[in-house]
Amino acid sequence: MSGGVDSAVAAARAAEAGHDVTGIHLALSRNPASYRSGARGCCTIEDSNDARRAADVIGIPFYVWDLSERFHEDVVEDFMDEYAAGRTPNPCLRCNEKIKFAAVLDRALALGFDAVATGHYAQLRPGADGLIEMHRAVDHGKDQSYVLGVLDQHQLAHSLFPLGDTTKDVVRQEAAARGLLVADKPDSHDICFVADGDNAGWLREKLGDRAPNHGGAIVDDATGEELGRHTGTYGFTIGQRKGLRIGTPAADGKPRFVLDIEPVTGTVTVGPHERLAVSRLSAIKPRWCGTVPRRLEGTVQLRAHGGEHRAVVATGDGAVEIELLDPAYGIAPGQAAVIYDGSRVVGSATIASTSTGTS
Question: Site annotation (Interaction with tRNA): which residues (predicted)?
Answer without folding.
Answer: 120, 335
